[in-house]
Each structure stands twice: as C-alpha cells, then as structure tokens.
Amino acid sequence: MKIILTHEVSGLGAAGDVVDVKDGYARNYLIPRGFAIRWTKGGEKDVEQIRRARKIHEIATIEQANEVKARLEGVKVRLAVRSGDAGRLFGSVTPADIASAIKSAGGPEVDKRRVELGSPIKTLGSHQVSVRLHPEVAAKLGVEVVAG
C-alpha cells in the first residue's frame, strides 16, 4: 500500500515521504496512530505542505545537531515519579515525561518522538536514553528516576 508519512517513523522515513508498506502495517498501525495517510492524487498536494512544516521544526545541519547534543549531554535530568516499596513504578516513564523533564531541567526543547527508550523504564535508578537529533547524530542522556 502506498502511503504518505505525516510524522517521522524510524526505519521507514521522514514526514512528507511517500513509501510503500504492507497493507496490514499501514491499516493497523500507521494510519490509526496518525503517522501516515493514504496516498491519493489529491493527497500528493499535501506532501509539499508536510515537507515545509518539517523543515521549520527540523534541525537542518549536523553542526546544529552537535550543538544541541552538547547542550543535552550537559543537562542533569531528574524525574520524580510515584513508586511502590520495592522501587517499582506505578506505570512507566514515557518519552513525553522525559521530554518535559529535559525542558524543566533547563535543556533544549525536544520532541517526544525523538526520545528513544531501549526498554520501558519501570524501576527507580539511573537509566540511559537516546535522543535522535539528526539522522547521523544521537545524544546519550542519563535520566535519574527518583521516588516522588
């Protein structure tokens, strides 16, 4: 099935790209979550609008990405969450929680879709998180999850 991506999807493409994927992947995952729309001749006009919006929000050069990476890696991110007696969290820490914690810690504003968790964070302690700033630049960030 031919689709137009409205958001960046890891391993598939960036917003505004026209890609061909399996029908079930598009129907059951990408389209319901708003990551893509069906390709049509009328939808082809939307591609240019999506690409213009992407350029506004995107870090354009590797130099800019390295500057943001340096600022991110200098920030101490501390996230207070509710937890049980054994150090297990009620729920888990989401990329949106981490993005807001980065901003409140004085770091640059980061889109939650750029925060990549290796596995869900469900315990107290220090965790490593990757923030993909550019296709070639990713920042490693230490997040300390504390009882709150």
How would you describe what is shown here?
With 148 residues, the chain is an alpha+beta fold. It has two domains: 2-65, 3-Layer(aba) Sandwich (Ribosomal Protein L9, domain 1); 69-147, Ribosomal Protein L9, domain 2 (Roll), CATH 3.10.430.100. 30% of the residues lie in helices and 32% in strands. It has helices at 23-30, 44-57, 62-73, 95-104, and strands at residues 2-5, 18-20, 36-38, 77-81, 88-93, 115-116, 121-123, 125-134, 137-147. The strands form three sheets. The protein has a four-stranded mixed β-sheet with strand order 4-9-8-6. A hairpin with a 2-residue loop joins β8 (125-134) and β9. The radius of gyration is 18 Å and the shape is globular. The protein starts with a strand and ends with a strand.
